[in-house]
Amino acid sequence: MCMALFLAGWNDGSTGPLLPRIQSVYHVGFAVVSLIFVSNCIGFVTAAAANVHLTDRLGLGKVMVLGSVAQCIAYALEAPAPPFPVFVVAYAINGFGIALQDAGANGYVASLADNAETKMGILHAVYGLGALSSPLVATQFSQLHHWSFHYLTSLGVAILDTIAQVVVFRFRDQDECLAEIGQPPSEKAASTNEDNKYKQIFRMRAVHYLAFFILIYVGVEVTIGGWIVTFVIDVRHGGPSSGYISAGFFGGLTLGRVALLWLNKKIGERRVIFLYAFLAIGLELIVWLVPSLIGGAVAVSFVGMLLGPIYPIAMNHSGRILPPWLLTGAIGWIAGFGQAGSAFLPFLTGLLASKEGIKSLQPLLVSMMGLMAFLWALVPNTPRRPD
User: Which regions span the lipid bilayer (predicted)?
Assistant: First the structure.
């Protein structure tokens, strides 16, 4: 599961450093290049909607391999720098694969009986590790003639992921995997056919609040990672090494998911998210209002550190308030729908930048972080009922 999340992080961290090069190669502006995010969004939402059906029909192990193979196909299409429409379609295939694996990984780890909170933190720290590593590679490729060969490195990581999913899970379903580690299968509702699962999941308000909260969170995270390089180059006049600022953000994200575990427990996971959100808003205001390249880079790294723990906390909270027999399907929807935020907000950023310039990035991020805190206040705090 960590391998799947590493690949997701690798993918999300690659886009920012390559974005200016993609624009110059295909001769497209902010709005048109943002179509890659729209295409990604279509893939994410399609996978989120299909996840319960696919998991019930095929089982967790096969769905994880399906998602990984979809990413291999996408990277193989992107590596030769195809015509822009093909490049855009590849992002939809990639989004479909990421969302299936993200849903499976989060649902599986949330179902673990022992130390699920710590393991969820580790899982998402590995996501951050992937997102930290890829800008270091993508920044180098962005300055080469064969810039798109970066996607060959991504293809290599995706092939390793596919091998890991096949070898470890051996195409088995979740209950078989849990039984192997001595954990009994999850509780079953009286009627858990596929249609009934969909109805039960979509009738729960908590699922929708969590889904929209994750959508805004992931959107903020990927927007910073994806557009901060363009902001630094255009507004703060950074040089070709500006891509490393994206690595600094994801480095902070990785560190926060491990180093702040103690603070989450001390303050309480529900309250600490408000603290992280308001501190991140303050730091984002520094990036916006203080015209310092170095100061902005440091602030962006600390924003990453504060945002880091939020996603695993939300997934752990889902495990506490949602019925166990619906947990994997519900988290699949929350994670898949939430991943659409990694397409929606970056696309919105591109539209605003085409009209107002990339300087509009910071006010958008500040407002979205405020909305994120508001949505978290709506998420119920009560444990799930026995029925």
Answer: 25-47, 59-77, 83-100, 121-141, 147-169, 206-229, 241-260, 272-290, 296-314, 326-348, 360-379
